[in-house]
Write a structure and sequence with these properties.
Glyco_hydro_32_N, Tachylectin-2, Chain A, 4 helices, 6-stranded antiparallel beta sheet, Jelly Rolls, about 45% strand, binds 2-acetamido-2-deoxy-beta-D-glucopyranose, 7-stranded mixed beta sheet, mainly beta, globular, 37 strands
Length: about 575
């Protein structure tokens, strides 16, 4: 199916979206500003939809993960934070530490506006550990009320402090200022640096030139004096402003991660950017031409709107880091709320970080695989196991014995070869749609051939509310197209919510006639991994009936073809120490 979707459907999309983009130019804005709510300290924190095991501070607004790193036995997570309210504003770098990426201890904010070079804001950035085990943070400072952006650095005040609590912003900041002719308000989010064979460090900054998204390349020998390269590392026409670029190697073979500076014939490179216009993230796999200092996406990797996404739901401003203690690359991503700013102000908090994911290259070489860090399994409590159960059309089976609002579920479905022949036809008219729109038309209530089947998460007893996460298999000529949906349209009886039918296609080989799904359910988030991490989708939902011990978990099939639960394991999840 991969071919079918990525080539034909996506080409058409490319044209459609390019036109849309040009016409919506001018509405690019990173965060809505609500001046009245910006500094309203939350006295009460609404518990109803708070997550238990996803990363959150005690209260108030969070966005991008910043500068994640592992240093002297401690994981550090910094993040964009409003210390004064539950909407975006007053942004500082908050800081938490952990030894297992599960239990978190909060520390005081590390970087906050205090100098002329960051007086109006301390925006996103990254950490690099320099030779001699010396960490340094690069971040974007806002220097005036017009949002002019510069790049600054900060270093630990005391390298003997095991938590690196205090950081210093030296007076020779800023290190990088926008050049004449560059857009000064689209010039931000320095990456972790990598070292070239010529002994020079390199970083990327996100930005744009007119409608072209740009990953500006800067080089430095001493990490202090930075020179802009004549050519950006990469650009793509019509994609608008690029934020939060991330650039790193993955090994062609094996499941280890690599340090950001690793080069050579045995690696591919990944370039990820966050598109300010769509508020989604896209990545390509490609090769890094170190002679020309340019990145060239593979021709199997579509560059732009219609490219591969880490997550086809609510996931943005992500950043990866290399965890050398376990030789793996870990990805952090932020999920905003899908309720209103007024709701956020009332509940006193907004935003979570999704569960960190280990990134590896799919053996097919055409995409990445993502899987929750194994440490998460330490939170698993009571377990329910099912196997061999056949689900006929219309069957709904409850999974009982676990806390359905706070759970980890892994299920593998199997089906007969003959069922593949009886899959519904992929309507050629849908070739101009993206997966989300196909899911919008063919949701869980629309009977299919093979599928829809999957989980009903955060479901009320009589199904007034539920968030189905499911597969639908289509026939398209001699191939099959597998759609995975996480559909929030029936998730809540509340009004005014953002309830998209998030979906992605799954480039999976069906010769073993199996499809697997894992969902991490945590009160107001459902984070799902299809086919062992080929397609991931996160939804934020706010049930009113399906809350805490009133939430249920079901398995369902609404296709004419029977499917079998090969195995299902569901666990109640315990609550870690969370800030
Ligand atoms: C901000 O932009 C306005 C309009 O271009 C300009 O008049 C003003 O001088 C700018 N302020 C600063 C601090 O750059
Ligand atoms: C640096 O941190 C170490 C370990 O916490 C502490 O003993 C020492 O007093 C600190 N030094 C300064 C100058 O604060
Ligand atoms: C710079 O980017 C901002 C934000 O996208 C946009 O509003 C502004 O028009 C751009 N300025 C120029 C000169 O292109
Ligand atoms: C299955 O389809 C029936 C008929 O459309 C519908 O009433 C039911 O809600 C569907 N089940 C799910 C889980 O969507
Ligand atoms: C998260 O909130 C929804 C609903 O308000 C918006 O539609 C998204 O654009 C937003 N996502 C990001 C990354 O800001």
């Amino acid at each position: 199916m991969g071919q079918f979707c990525s080539e034909k459907i996506l080409w058409v999309l490319a044209l459609v979206f390019t036109c849309v983009l040009v016409s919506i130019n001018g509405v690019e804005a990173s965060h809505k500003v609500y001046p009245d709510y910006q500094s309203l300290t939350a006295s009460n924190v609404g518990r109803l939809h708070r997550t238990a095991y996803h990363f959150q501070p005690k209260r108030h607004w969070i966005n991008d993960p910043n500068g994640p790193m592992y240093y002297n036995g401690v994981y550090h997570l910094f993040y964009q934070y409003n210390p004064k309210g539950a909407v975006w504003g007053n942004i500082v770098w908050a800081h938490s530490v952990s030894t297992d990426l599960i239990n978190w201890t909060p520390l005081d904010p590390t970087i906050f506006p205090s100098k002329p070079f960051d007086k109006y804001g301390c925006w996103s950035g990254s950490a690099t550990v320099l030779p001699g085990n010396r960490p340094v943070i690069l971040y974007t400072g806002i220097v005036d009320q017009n949002n002019t952006q510069v790049q600054n650095y900060a270093v630990p005040a005391n390298l003997s402090d095991p938590y690196l609590r205090e950081w210093v912003k030296p007076d020779n900041n800023p290190l990088i200022v926008p050049q004449a002719g560059e857009n000064k308000t689209a010039f931000r989010d320095p990456t972790t640096a990598w070292l070239g064979r010529d002994g020079r460090w390199r970083i990327l900054l996100g930005g744009k030139r007119k409608h072209r998204g740009v990953a500006f390349l800067y080089r430095s020998r001493d990490f202090l004096r930075w020179t802009k390269a004549k050519h950006p590392l990469h650009t793509a026409a019509g994609t608008g402003n690029w934020e939060c670029p991330d650039f790193y190697p993955v090994p062609k073979q094996g499941s280890n991660g690599l340090d950001t500076s690793v080069l050579g014939p045995n690696v591919k490179h990944v370039l990820k950017v966050s598109l300010d216009v769509t508020r989604y993230e896209y990545y390509t796999l490609g090769s890094y031409d170190t002679d020309k200092d340019r990145y060239i996406p593979d021709d199997t990797s579509r560059d732009g709107w219609n490219g591969l996404r880490y997550d086809y739901g609510n996931f943005y401003a992500s950043k990866s880091f290399f965890d050398h203690s376990k030789n793996r690359r870990i990805l952090w991503g932020w999920a905003n709320e899908s309720d209103t700013a007024y709701d956020d102000m009332t509940k006193g908090w907004a935003g979570i970080q999704l569960i960190p994911r280990v990134i590896t290259l799919d053996p097919n070489g055409k995409q990445l695989l993502q899987w929750p860090i194994p440490e998460l399994e330490s939170l698993r409590g009571e377990n329910v196991h099912l196997s061999g159960q056949v689900l006929k059309k219309g069957d709904v089976v409850e999974v009982t014995g676990i806390t359905a609002a706070q759970a980890d579920v892994e299920v593998t479905f199997s089906f007969a070869a003959s069922s593949l022949d009886l899959a519904e036809q992929f309507d050629p008219a849908w070739k101009t749609l993206d997966a989300q729109d196909v899911c919008g038309r063919r949701g869980s209530t629309v009977e299919g051939g093979l599928g829809p089947f999957g989980l009903l998460t955060l479901a009320s007893e009589n199904l007034e509310e539920y968030t189905p996460v499911f597969f639908r298999v289509f026939k398209a000529g001699y191939q099959h197209v597998v759609l995975m949906c996480s559909d929030a349209r029936s998730s809540s009886l509340m009004d005014g919510l953002y309830t998209p039918s998030f979906a992605g296609f799954v480039d999976v080989d069906l010769t073993d006639k199996k499809l697997s799904l894992r969902s991490l359910i945590d009160h107001s988030v459902v984070e799902s991994f299809g086919a062992r991490g080929k397609t991931c989708i996160s939804s934020r939902v706010y049930p009113t009936l399906a809350v805490s011990d009133k939430a249920h978990l079901y398995v369902f099939n609404n296709g004419t073809e029977a499917v079998k639960i090969e195995t299902l394991d569901a666990w109640s999840m315990n609550r870690p120490r969370m800030n």
